[in-house]
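note to self — DONT lose this again. spent like an hour looking for the file last time. sequence + predicted structure for the chain T wanted, 161 res
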Amino acid sequence: MATPFFVFTRNELIYLLVLFLLGIIIGATLLNLFLSQQVDRLILEKKDLEVKVKEQEDQIKQLEENKYKYNYIRKLTINLDTDVNKHTQQVIKNKIRDLLSGLLGKEIKSIDPLLLWDVINDRYIPVEDKTFHLHLEIMVITEELQLYIKVKSTKKGEEPE
């Protein structure tokens, strides 16, 4: 009588192999879910840092050009009142900064506040498949231009009431 080479039968080996593969799949899925949150956070942080670097480069450029002038805009601060996610907020802030890119380094007395108000207030900004309505609530014009904007989401092509 020959002794079997394996202690397990063929069905038991298949069962163990299936359990092993199922464990690998579940482990990989859980690892992916855990790491995707960290990757998303890191991507958002990277974009924030890129924006800050660009802002600081612009500020340095404007400061070098206007280092002997006083009463000019040195910094732009945008505060959004919204419930959209941080990625979308970042895109909206970047589009607003692009609209106001010529203001850094300008003398405060040469800025028309009503024109600046009209540029931002009641503006619609498209982001991916949505359009966002901007409502400028407060604008503070000092060496640091501060904008407090309420953002409402609308569907593309839809006008809010």
